[in-house]
Design brief:
Blueprint lengths: L5 H13 L2 H8 L3 H15 L4 E4 L2 E4 L1 H28 L4 E7 L7 H12 L3 E7 L2 H9 L5 E7 L11 E8 L1 E6 L9 E3 L7 E5 L18 E6 L2 H9 L5 E4 L10 E7 L6 E7 L5 H15 L5
Parallel strand pairs: 3-4, 3-5, 8-12, 9-10
Antiparallel strand pairs: 1-2, 5-13, 6-13, 7-11, 7-12
Length: 301
């Protein structure tokens, strides 16, 4: 007596998805005759035709619709089971809490989280966004496993004693301009070029990087001030001014905004650092490594 098989259900699902035996065979790496045999076996098990064959492809019969619906559920459950079992075998299972300041949380941290969780399906990673002083307090209290902070020009000298620090990114700054702006087609401008521009500046929390106008520009013209990056970049996209943006946030630039480098030998820069307790867990070390990997590929997009 014919029986349903996982291989047959996979073939059935693929044929139903693409509407063609030939295309399903190509995607599955089977011969067309092998696909036909699997479908025939599923029809024998179902006791009814599953497809109406036509000159322009195949269509599901009522019996086929029922079986494909059930096959979709079975295959999804199987994939979830495989993922759960992989988590049991993975020594990096459990829960990891990473905290980051808002700019790092725009693109760099989410990409590192995706890298870690795809490689370690048994590890649940939770992101908390907060100011650097708050992140360091939570780290020392054991509420965070990794804190991503900014250090350098214009930032407080944070107390990092007895904490482990790992350089993630020596970050530069750029200016974000509307796509119709006169700078949009330039690869680089000078500080003098910025003198007559209208600026949209940030109003971050105490202890956070304060993204004002270009750091070495004297007497900038401030047009608007907004706390969130989405608001600032929205104002830029609308043509209401330009703003400073860290290179690590470039992957999150919205449509209608371009980033331009600035030639400035007086800007000493800032850095993004991963901070952990003195003896980080294997999970925390994996996250720090992922942060470094993503920082190294930041400009690949």
């Amino acid at each position: 007596m014919a029986e349903f098989t996982l291989t047959g259900l996979r073939v059935l699902h693929q044929v139903a998805t693409v509407g063609s035996f030939t295309r399903a065979a190509e995607l599955l790496g089977y011969t067309q005759s092998a696909v036909s045999r699997q479908v025939a076996a599923m029809e024998a098990a179902a006791g009814a035709p599953l497809f109406d064959r036509g000159g322009r492809g195949v269509a599901l019969t009522p019996a086929g619709q029922v079986l494909v619906r059930r096959a979709t559920e079975i295959l999804a459950d199987l994939a979830a089971t495989e993922l759960e079992l992989a988590g049991l075998r993975d020594r990096l299972a459990g829960r990891l809490v990473i905290g980051a300041y808002p700019t790092a949380a725009m693109a760099l941290v989410p990409r590192a989280m995706a890298q870690v969780t795809s490689g370690h399906p048994g590890l649940a990673v939770v992101l908390e966004e907060a100011s650097t002083p708050a992140l360091l307090r939570r780290l020392r209290a054991g509420r965070l496993d990794v804190a991503i902070i900014g250090v350098g020009h214009g930032l407080p000298d944070y107390d990092l004693s007895e904490l482990r620090q790992t350089m993630v990114l020596q970050g530069g700054l750029r200016v974000a301009v509307p796509e119709a702006h006169r700078f949009a087609g330039h690869s680089r401008v000078t500080v003098a070029d910025l003198a007559q521009e209208h600026w949209i500046t940030g109003d971050g929390a105490a202890g956070e990087p304060q993204f004002r106008a270009w750091p070495t520009l004297s007497d900038p013209r401030i047009a608007h001030t907004a706390r969130s990056w989405s608001t600032r970049l929205g104002l830029v996209a609308a043509g209401l001014g330009i703003t400073v943006i860290p290179e690590q946030a470039l992957p999150a630039l919205p449509a209608g905004v371009r980033a331009v480098a600035v030639a400035d030998g007086h800007w000493t820069g800032r850095a993004t650092v991963a901070v952990t307790r003195p003896h980080p867990s294997a999970q925390a070390q994996a996250m720090v490594s992922a942060m470094q990997d993503q920082a190294a590929h930041l400009h690949d997009d």
